[in-house]
Amino acid sequence: MSSVKVVKLTKYFNKVKVLDDLNLNIEQGQIISLLGPSGCGKSTTLKIIAGILEPDDGDILFNNKSVLNIPIENRNAVIVFQDYLLFPHLDVYDNIAFGLKIKKKKIHNK
After folding, report:
1. In 3-state terms, what secondary structure has residue 102?
2. For the segment 23-68, what is each residue's pLDDT rounded down to a tens digit?
3. SS3 per-residue string spanning 38-80
4. CA–CA dist 51, 101 (Å, integer)
């Protein structure tokens, strides 16, 4: 597990600024949640951290090292999408654990 720092993250979609100098510090082992109304940038932030989107400005650091030049498949970050992209035959735990199981990481059983 890594610490994650979001530093002055900015993202535009067309001319609309979705993220404006966002700073976030997540310590190793810490669990956080992003809350806010639709369109405030929660998913955009997670997609940038995971490498699905590129920021227009700012940086993403894992253990104080920039990951912006690391391709998505080598970044070791995942995102669990909302509702319609979950596996309907799996419960919440198994949906979240799915990526860890694929990577053959040890997880705690229910």
Report:
1. helix
2. 999 999 888 888 888 889 999 999 999 999 999 999 999 999 999 9
3. CCCCHHHHHHHHHCCCCCCEEEEEECCEECCCCCHHHCCCCCC
4. 20
Please check whether residue 8 is in contact with residue 45, taking contact to mean a CB–CB distance below 8 angstroms: no
CA distances from 88 to 15, 61, 82, 101, 107 (A): 36, 33, 11, 17, 21
- Distance CA(52)–CA(75), nearest Å, equals 10
Nearest Cα to 20, choosing from 45, 43, 37?
Answer: 45
- What is the pLDDT at residue 35? 85
Rounded CA-CA distance 50/70 in Å is: 10
Listed in sequence order, the residues at least 6 apart from 93 whose beta carbon sits closer than 8 Å to its beta carbon are 110
**What does the block give as tokens for 11?**
């993202």
Q: CB of 60 within 8 A of CB of 67?
A: yes
